[in-house]
Amino acid sequence: MIFDLDGTLFQTETLLLPAYHATFDQLRAENLYSGETPPESAILGSLGMLLEHIWQRVMPESDEAVRRRADVLLLDYQIQGLVKGEGKLYDGVADTLTALHEQGIRLFVASNGLESYVKEVVAYKGVDELFEALYSAGEFQTRSKVDLVRMLLEKYGIGSAWMVGDRSSDVEAGLKNGLTVIGCDYAEFKSGSGELEGAHAKIQRFGELLELIER
């Protein structure tokens, strides 16, 4: 099974939003940004995209240097939050992943996030030992999740897998790589009813994965 991270395993807003506001406070302090912080919906509605595309949507008027500074600040504040114990996995994630692992199912993460963010979230939430590998767009410099998942499949010799995620990018990555796609329909910041169109099955809570396997 290959899992997306944000909105699938990790309740992203519990870590992201405090860091998001701190980032814009610091950008203003450095005279790199003026005006009000863009609404939270701007970044929550962009999750699942590559970070550069997220900033293009959140602050389209800012230049590239400011966006790169925002990258650094947001990551720093999120790591600081993890160290302080902020951020939550969705209900049932740790137990379900443990049960899947005990069944001998190989577990992976494929995320469009930055390498250190993905690895730190999984480590600080205590589930890192359950995964065979963590793949991120930040580490492998991929331009789409389709490419990222393809790289993972080829590297680990995987011929059959489930792609589990909450975004259209996850559905696309699964379908274009010939995988079974499970859509996670429980994130509070999901962007719309058509986001998971094409998924073979949808779940309303993470633990339903165990029921799907039994069926």
From TrEMBL:
The keyword Iron-sulfur does not apply. It comes from the Bacteria. The keyword Glycoprotein does not apply. Signal peptide: none annotated. InterPro entries: HAD-like_hydrolase_sf (IPR050155), HAD-like_sf (IPR036412), HAD_2 (IPR041492), HAD_sf (IPR023214), PGP-like_dom2 (IPR023198). It holds the Pfam family HAD_2. Keywords: Hydrolase. This is HAD family hydrolase. It comes from Paenibacillus piri.
